[in-house]
Write a structure and sequence with these properties.
Layout: H1 10-18, H2 20-23, E1 43-47, E2 51-57, E3 66-71, E4 74-81, E5 100-107, E6 118-122, E7 125-131
Antiparallel strand pairs: 1-2, 2-7, 3-4, 4-5, 6-7
């Protein structure tokens, strides 16, 4: 009877080899970093009677590496999560977090006040507040026919 060596990570490796986008495999050469187009921060978008709220998950991204721009009716969120410098004596076994540049764009609602958008970054989450414009209530008036 021969003994078989049990590799506890083999099942994980097979799973990630079947779904390469999730982990790029566990083997040395196949475990490269994700490219810029491979990730975008997850966002939650909600609405209150006064504003639209966007929360973007940006853990590990420095405040100075985040840009928020409004142009042509679009809100664009972009930035970069930089890979930590490797140490000589440190061996990476798995890299699952995404690194590199990211970009997300959102069409602004017609009633969003572009001039009043506010951004706050805390605890790895970017909070964007897009206040709604006050809409004038339409008044009825009679128009004379000539």
């Amino acid at each position: 009877m021969s003994l078989a060596r049990w590799n506890p990570f083999r099942e994980f490796e097979e799973f990630f080899n079947h779904y390469p986008r999730l982990g790029k495999g566990l083997g040395g050469a196949s475990q490269e970093l994700m490219t810029a187009a491979d990730w975008a921060p997850a966002v939650d978008i909600s609405e209150t009677p006064q504003a639209y709220l966007i929360k973007a998950e940006l853990a590990g991204v420095r405040r100075e590496d985040i840009q928020v721009k409004v142009e042509g009716g679009q809100l664009r969120l972009s930035g970069e999560r930089k890979f930590e410098k490797e140490e000589k004596d440190k061996k990476q076994h798995r890299v699952e977090r995404f690194y590199g540049s990211f970009s997300r764009s959102f069409s602004l609602p017609d009633d969003a006040d572009e001039a009043q958008i506010k951004a706050e970054y805390r605890d790895g989450v970017l909070h964007l507040t897009l206040p709604k414009r006050e809409t004038a209530t339409p008044r009825a008036r009679e128009i004379a026919v000539d």
